[in-house]
Specification:
Layout (H helix, E strand, L loop, with lengths): L7 H8 L2 H7 L13 H4 L4 E7 L2 H9 L2 H7 L4 H15 L3 H4 L3 H4 L7 E7 L7 E8 L4 H17 L4 E6 L2 E6 L8 E6 L2 E5 L2 H9 L16 H10 L9 E5 L1 H7 L3 H13 L5 E12 L2 E11 L5 H4 L6 E2 L12 E6 L2 H15 L6 H14 L3 H5 L3 E11 L8 E9 L2 H11 L9 E5 L2 E5 L5 H15 L9 H4 L8 E5 L2 E5 L2 H11 L10 H14 L3 E2 L1 E5 L1 H13 L1 H10 L4 H12 L5 H5 L5 E8 L2 E9 L6
Antiparallel strand pairs: 1-2, 1-8, 2-3, 3-7, 4-5, 5-6, 6-7, 8-9, 9-10, 10-22, 11-19, 12-13, 12-20, 13-14, 14-18, 15-16, 16-17, 17-18, 20-21, 21-22
Helix pairs in contact: 1-4, 6-25, 24-25
């Protein structure tokens, strides 16, 4: 057994980074880096950026989250340690290439980690990646990894060039081939890697220089600064993870020549270039929260074309009375439908040679005639702009036990019923089955592939000459829930779901025969926090989630003997699954009560302003001793 049984959960967050570290051999120096932070070293043309300021601090905070404490719980330790030992044994297959065990690899990252993609138009590669990693006191282990990786490359006949830049040695592999080139270096305990030697030299020149606000470094990038000003957290809680992306910058950097100029001109004409960037941050262990995150979608102001269609507005966020108390996920969105439609009409007509009637003609020919209605008046004009989504678990535990339900609020529910009735009278619409539940009609649609399966079954029966025989049900044989799509009108909502049973539950909840989410204590705590953060009981979007219920479903799948046997059977063809099955049979999971006490509900809220859309999410800190 591994000697990390008691301490391995502390290292768990680092596992997510192993692929990156092992792929580019993260080597270390004699001490933690005494240099400028990554955003002050990267150029302002950085297009993608992910940074963990301090991996050790991040790991310690992860250990103190609900999941981290769960993995250290004495009831969970046997299972957790067994799985870590399994991972360590599997990792031994890579030891000849890396030169280190899993335990040793996980000791490498110590301080800052950063990965970025930079636009380098004046170089022989249009995009360059950069990785920076502090390894601290793990220098001996790092050098073993470095020497092992270099030995493999030399054995394969790969050349290495060495160039001194000041006191730093740059090692370059495949120097003559930009697509295969790798440049790496060590300086003051930080190891870096890139595919662009010129970019590395530029970074080294700025290594210990504090930039001014006029220097062309990423920390002065206007888009990055604007987004981070909305995502910095508080004075007592600095971000543990930061990310940024400039999608339009990436698109523009890929365009060249006359064709590229045309593509960019078209993008500007439809307003795509008003999407200026996206970024965010995550903070762990803040006050009463396990974690909180910010994400900001940065948009131009004013907006044109496609971006003008993004018209989220502040509205009601309390769930309708048909949303059950034990809903797994609840989301509501408020939208200015007329504004979006008007912006779409303006854009559609513009790209249709500025024909002011282009959209009206298209709707008449393609929708109104086929649906038998006036699409704009009967559908667009009857939408309130509020949409509700909920997910619900239908037992028994299956991979697809989670069902989905959408509720679309109507301004005139009776008119909506007439519209739907008219549409389904058309020849190109399927036949509906009707079912009454407490006075509400549920309309059941044919399931996915129903017509095709029926035809295939008839052909098989005819071929075998056995009329009336039934074929094996693929849903039952694979232990999957058969989707039963349908819809109903509940209160002032058109409700659509992939489960008739979920619609029935919504009807019972609306009728008062089941508890509603609007009075659930955990939901009310989320709602109160949202109001505290935003200063309002209204918002553009609200999200509420109970991840413990999703995990419960997978837990029940995991402890099911039939499912464990399936893993064992799969091991006949897949040795890895066979070894995993053996490990799972060596130890039992604790009861779900042990796991559940470390999990709590989470929430999120989205608002909009002139700079774009901002999403704030949080998870409450669990108290397993209560």
């Amino acid at each position: 057994m591994s000697n990390l049984r008691g301490t391995w959960p502390k290292r768990l967050p680092v596992i997510a980074l192993l692929v990156i570290f092992s792929a580019i051999f993260a080597w270390g120096g004699e001490a933690l880096a005494q240099r400028r932070p990554a955003p002050e070293l990267l150029p302002d043309s950085t297009l993608v950026y992910v940074r963990i300021p301090d991996i050790q601090d991040f790991t310690a905070k992860m250990q103190d989250t609900g999941v981290g404490r769960m993995l250290e719980d004495e009831d969970m330790q046997p299972f957790a340690a067994e799985m870590y030992d399994f991972a360590a044994e599997e990792f031994e297959q890579l030891r000849d290439q890396i030169g280190l065990s899993l335990d040793e690899v996980m000791e490498l990252p110590q301080g800052e980690f950063c990965f970025a993609i930079v636009e380098t138009p004046d170089s022989d590669v249009p995009f360059s990646f950069v990785m920076l990693l502090d390894v601290g006191e793990s220098v001996d282990l790092a050098k073993i990894a470095e020497e092992s990786g270099e030995a493999l490359l030399f054995d394969a006949g790969v050349d290495q060039d060495v160039e001194d830049v000041g006191e730093t040695s740059l090692k370059t592999i495949n120097a003559a081939d930009p697509e295969e080139r790798l440049v790496y270096f060590e300086r003051e305990g930080t190891y870096g890697a890139s595919n662009n030697p010129d970019l590395v030299k530029e970074i080294l020149l700025r290594w210990n220089l504090k930039p001014t606000n006029r220097d062309k470094v990423f920390s002065n990038n206007r888009k990055f600064v604007t987004i981070m000003n909305r995502c910095r957290g508080t004075s007592d809680a600095r971000p543990d993870v930061v990310y940024f992306a400039d999608p339009i910058g990436i698109f523009e950097a890929t365009q060249s020549g006359a064709a590229g100029a045309v593509a960019m001109a078209f993008a500007r004409s439809i307003g795509v270039t008003d999407f200026l960037g996206i970024g965010g941050s995550t903070m762990l262990g803040v006050d009463d929260f396990d974690g909180m995150s910010h994400m900001h979608l940065y948009l131009a102001s004013p907006r044109e074309g496609v971006m003008k269609m993004l018209a989220m507005e502040s509205g009601e966020i309390v769930p309708p009375t048909f949303v059950p108390d034990d809903t797994v996920t609840y989301m509501t969105l408020n939208w200015d439908v007329p504004k979006t439609f008007d912006a779409f009409e303006e854009l559609f007509n513009r790209v249709s040679q500025n024909d002011p009637d282009a959209l009206n003609i298209a709707i008449e020919n393609n929708l109104n005639e086929n649906l038998g209605i006036d699409f704009v008046e009967d559908i667009i004009g009857n939408l309130s702009g509020r949409v509700v989504y909920m997910s619900y678990i239908i037992p028994p535990a299956r991979l697809n036990s989670q069902t989905n339900l959408f509720g679309i609020q109507m301004l005139d529910i009776d008119a909506a019923k007439e519209t739907i009735e008219t549409m389904f009278e058309q020849d190109n619409f399927p036949e509906l089955k009707e079912k009454k539940v407490r006075g509400v009609t549920i309309y059941q649609l044919p399931g996915p592939g129903a017509r095709r399966r029926a035809q295939e079954n008839r052909e098989r029966r005819d071929d075998r000459g056995r009329q009336g025989s039934e074929d094996e049900d693929p849903f039952e044989s694979q232990n999957l829930r058969r989707p039963e799509p349908g819809f109903a009108f509940i209160e002032d909502y058109l409700v659509v779901s992939d489960s008739i049973e979920t619609i029935e539950m919504a009807i019972q909840t609306s009728d008062g025969r089941a508890d509603a989410l609007e009075s659930n204590g955990e939901f009310l705590d989320v709602l109160a926090e949202v109001e505290r953060q935003t200063g309002s009981s209204r918002a553009g979007m609200l999200m509420y989630s109970r991840p413990q219920e999703v995990l419960r479903n997978f837990y029940e799948l995991g402890v099911n003997e039939e499912n464990r046997q399936r893993i064992m059977d799969a091991g006949d063809d897949n040795p890895f699954l066979g070894r995993l099955g053996d490990r799972l049979n060596n130890v039992d999971l604790p009861s779900f009560d042990v796991i559940e006490k470390f999990l709590t509900s989470s929430g999120g809220v989205m608002t909009s302003d002139e700079s774009g859309f901002h999403y704030f999410s949080f998870g409450f800190r669990p108290n397993p001793d209560e």
